Amino acid sequence: YNAKESRNSWKRYEKKMNLKAKEKLLLENDLRIALELDQFYLAYQPLVDLEHEHLVGAEALLRWSHPERGEISPADFIPLCEENGFILPLGEWVLRQACMQMKMWQDQGFPPIVMSVNLSIRQFRQHDLSERIGNVLKETGLEPQWLELEITESIMADVAFATSMLEKLKKIGVRISIDDFGTGYSSLYYLKRFPIDKLKIDRSFVNDVLTDRNDAAIVSGISAMARNLNLKVTAEGVESAGQAAFLKEQKCQEAQGYYYSRPVPADRFEALFEAERNKAVRGAASS
Ligand code: C2E
Ligand code: MG
Ligand code: MG
Ligand code: MG
To answer: Record keywords: Translocase included (predicted)?
Structure first.
C-alpha cells in the first residue's frame, strides 16, 4: 500500500470532481437563459409503416445549439434538467412546439401523421399534467389523436399513480407509448393493466438482430406479444435494409432509425412528406 500514491490519486479524483461540479454549474446557468435566447429547437425523425413504407409519424427530439459549445446532445443535458427541475418548463416548451408544428403541417395540407413527444418521469409526476396537456392542445388547435406521449417503464414504480394518470391522459384522447421497451422494469403485469397503445422496442435489441439469436428472439417475441395484446409496436434504431426486412418478417408494424432518416429540422422533414407522395421516404431528408 502506497500512502503517497493513494493521496495523489485522491487529489486527481478531487480535481476531476471539482471540474465536473463546475462544469455542471456552468451548464445550469446556460440552461436558464437558453430558453429565452431561443437556443433550443426540435429535430423530427420519421416513423415508417414497415408493410407499405408509409410515413406514419414523427418523433420530436430536443436539440440545443449552444453559442460556444455548438450542438449539445440531449443525453448530456436532459439528465441535468431532470435533476434540477428545469425539465418542467423545457418539456412544456417541447410539447407546445411539437403540437404547433404538427398543426401547421396539417394546415399546409400534408397528410396526417402522429407526433410523438418524450415525457420525462418528472413531467409525468405532475398532478396537473393532463390539464397542462389539454391546454397545450387547445392553444395550438391540434386534435388529441395526433399526439402521442412517450413514457418509459420507470413510471411503473408507482402503479397506483401511473394507472390514474394514464387513464386521465387517455380521457383527453392522446396516445401513449412505452419508450425504450425492454430496458426498464420489465414487468409484463402492467401491459394488460395500463391503457397504453404502443411499445417501442429499444434499439439495443434491434442493433444486432441479424447476428445475435437472442436479440432476434427478443424482438420477434415482443412483436408477437404486442400483436396479441392489440398494441402497436415500433422498432427503434433500424439502420439497415436487412434489419428492416427481418422486422417486416416478424410482422413488426413500424420502424424508426437512420436507415430511413436521422432526426432532421422541420424544413427538411417536409421533404419526407413530399417524398411520401412518390413513396420514397428513405433518404429523402438527406438530399
Ligand atoms: P429516445 O426517446 O429513445 O429517442 C431516440 C434516440 O435514438 C434519439 O437520440 C435518436 O436520434 C436516436 N436514434 C434514432 N435512430 C437511430 C439509429 O438508427 N441509430 C442510432 N444509433 N440512434 C438512433 P437523441 O435525439 O440523442 O435523444 C436521446 C434521448 O434523449 C431520447 O431517447 C430521449 O430519451 C431523450 N430526449 C430527447 N428529446 C427529449 C425531450 O424533448 N424530452 C425528454 N424528456 N427527453 C428527450
Ligand atoms: Mg423517444
Ligand atoms: Mg426516451
Ligand atoms: Mg427510445
So the answer is: no
